[in-house]
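Quick one: co-fold with zinc ion.
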Amino acid sequence: MKIKKGDTVEVISGNDRGERGTVHRIISEKNRIVVSGVHMVKKHQRRTGDVKTQVGIIEREAPIDISNVALVCSHCDRATRVGYEIMGDGGKVRVCKRCREAVD
Ligand SMILES: [Zn+2]
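Sure, here it is.
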């Protein structure tokens, strides 16, 4: 998985194209992610009997397909593809394919 929780990503296709946010959940088995502030949907929450449940229309982020987002490089501030480079100690680091800087 090239995208991790906490990454800043940009939506590159679909209705939310161009929007940016922070990844706050990854649903790896479905290849979907939840990005803060992106793809907000209105959800009608009915009374459930639990008094603590918020009732009415609530807005929340819906998961989007991971293939619709690209990582935003913290160095060049552009949506980029991610590559890997092997460090001298054998560890792998993610690199921005545009500016070749390490992203992690
Ligand atoms: Zn870059």
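If it helps, The longest strand covers residues 20-27.
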